Amino acid sequence: xxxxxxxxxxxxxxxxxxxxxxxxxxxxxxxxxxxxxxxxxxxxxxxxxxxxxxxxxxxxxxxxxxxxxxxxxxxxxxxxxxxxxxxxxxxxxxxxxxxxxxxxxxxxxxxxxxxxxxxxxxxxxxxxxxxxxxxxxxxxxxxxxxxxxxxxxxxxxxxxxxxxxxxxxxxxxxxxxxxxxxxxxxxxxxxxxxxxxxxxxxxxxxxxxxxxxxxxxxxxxxxxxxxxxxxxxxxxxxxxxxxxxxxxxxxxxxxxxxxxxxxxxxxxxxxxxxxxxxxxxxxxxxxxxxxxxxxxxxxxxxxxxxxxxxxxxxxxxxxxxxxxxxxxxxxxxxxxxxxxxxxxxxxxxxxxxxxxxxxxxxxxxxxxxxxxxxxxxxxxxxxxxxxxxxxxxxxxxxxxxxxxxxxxxxxxxxxxxxxxxxxxxxxxxxxx
Length: 432
Fold this sequence. Notes:
- The chain is of the alpha+beta class.
- It has three domains: 2-93, Rossmann fold, CATH 3.40.50.20; 119-186, ATP-grasp fold, A domain (Dna Ligase, domain 1); 191-402, D-amino Acid Aminotransferase, Chain A, domain 1 (2-Layer Sandwich), CATH 3.30.470.
- The protein has 13 helices and 21 strands.
- Helix 3 packs across helix 5 and helix 8 packs antiparallel against helix 9 (162-174).
- The longest helix has 22 residues, at 237-258.
- Residues 422-432 have low confidence and may be disordered.
């Protein structure tokens, strides 16, 4: 069988790596891919948003399964283009992906379907948003301000005071090229969990949980990023899974089907575990990054067989998923300038050799055709994943290996995997 993975980040390298382990898969292609995905198969020089061109290429190449990685591809209607041609593709349609691509639509959907989420208000005018912020007392801060659309993990501001909130509104609505709408919502304190489930449009199955780190700097300080690291498991899955499936995932899947937009793909609920129970911060319509890099090394099942079953509506026919008891911890190595404009094109040293308990997933990398060196090409360059008996052991392994990788301006957080569930300071709010 031939498989196409759409995307070019660390998530897509992990997907290609995992899918290549299936005995049914003979060839892996990634569009456009990176220097890491080229090790797992063949890169195809097509952008993720080129829906029609990607579908035409897949039809000509007789691809048996396509897996869509990034949200930008979903928003561009890649799944719709593939389905129009009768091609097997794993991911939600453009309409179903509104659970991620429109924060306002998703919040309204959660309210309609009685899915627990933070209180919120929506605004299209700066004056109305500012008036609302002025009406809040100091005790009601911080508040969370989200742009209504995709922002590569950087579309959220946690405003600790009114001045910061007003500036965020101006940046979101008042500047040229800003969003058409923003959401201002209640700030929630607790421990944040990435809860992923797979759906065939009618049924859903939980995957494992992870905890990721969205702020740039240690202690959840600094600007939001797409994610600076993650670990799994959390040690709380047994008491969390049934509740989240009953109150969040199943109502969402049933609600989407009832509203005429069946949801097929990965549904990723960003949750805050509060004193009142799990509350949804946001939905993502795809595998997370960097969560995928720490989850897939623990997943023992044949991923290709699972995804084919999901595209055929046969999830209930599968046995329960199986997970390695070992822990994983992933540390992202980033370029200077990230999460702003990253410095790219710099050669990377120390990528090999690697021990069996270490995985290195490429994100923003490319191979220089002139020198054959692997160079940086984006903000989040690599995810170094350690595997160990405990999160603490996996963390030690990941950081030890990360210390041997060098490129100019390379930086990382130093506290990935250092906290346990329930000890968060509550400032790791959601990003999208």
